[in-house]
């Protein structure tokens, strides 16, 4: 091993050490950062009511985990993206850019008090580059649903219906489109998925609250269950895929849609749902003799649990031969991280997941 390799190994070990340390002290560190934030600007308590101050503490908790996630994989861009999202979220709630910068400074100061002196420059670099990145952020994107095309109109109608709190009407709207001949794959890709993305954007913009977002998600889960019995299925191809949102990821609509696309393509699709620990994923792959395991990460903070799950599966003799596909928004902007984790492929859409799985199984044969 030459000097460059030693330096790379030392840097990787430093990043891993810091990531594990931050996760271990995250609750206390978040509280310390919140207190430091109020010290930097004493007007904070006067300018924000109790609910918003509570949200600030929650934000620091998220940022500690985002910083740990970025350090674990040596990618500052992960912290950049997550803080940019926070800026957009808080901007819609009348939080000034300067307050976000002060919050990052408070986080840096709090972290510095808890880590070795030699590690402080690394954390300072991650946070300084994030502050610089903030000024380039465009903010929350506009609505992307197109009311001038039939499918865009249907997606908008679905959004309005679920926000009215009418589950039956939402169901009738989607099943009615199905009975009029709109293919299920189009309903998934051009109606339900864009509608859920728009609802997420509306929550980010403070146009809907958490209760409304939860109702919309629950309603969409119900509609997916109703559509399931109508899935067109190709003849069974003898292949099995296990799918799940990994531990810590409670968002399952996307991976559930992917499971249905596999069934439509002739696979036996074993959908495990959300928040599945790596040990149980390995058991499921072995129990169902799966050819492929598909794991979803909705947020960057879920990446560590994906990596842990892959390691768990690879260490299980009865599961290690399965091909592993990863995907989800948590992998956006992470370059080749999926390969570094030990996955066999990255897929960012249902069609892509099915295609990659087929290629992997065929190549192995």
Task: Give the topology.
Blueprint: H1 3-24, H2 26-40, H3 44-47, H4 50-72, H5 76-91, H6 97-112, H7 120-134, H8 150-163, H9 167-179, H10 184-204, H11 210-228, E1 240-245, H12 253-264, E2 268-271, H13 278-287, E3 292-296, H14 303-315, E4 323-327, H15 337-340, E5 345-346, H16 350-364
Parallel strand pairs: 1-2, 1-3, 3-4, 4-5
Short key terms for the protein model shown above:
Methyltransferase, Methionine Synthase (B12-binding Domains), Chain A, domain 1; single chain; Rossmann fold; Globin-like; five-stranded parallel beta sheet; alpha/beta; 365 residues; globular
Percent in helix: 55-70%
Largest sheet: 5 strands, parallel
CATH architecture of the largest domain: Orthogonal Bundle
* Beta-strand percent range: 5-15%
Distance between the termini: 36 Å
Coarse morphology: globular
- SS elements, strand count: 5
Tally of DSSP helical segments: 16
Name the CATH homologous superfamily of the largest domain.
Phycocyanins
Order of strands, main sheet, comes to 2-1-3-4-5
Structural class: alpha/beta
Number of domains: 3
Q: Tell me, what is the CATH class of the largest domain?
A: Mainly Alpha
Radius of gyration: 22 Å
Summed over residues and divided by their number, the pLDDT gives a mean of 90
What fold name stands as the CATH topology of the largest domain? Globin-like
Low-confidence stretches: none
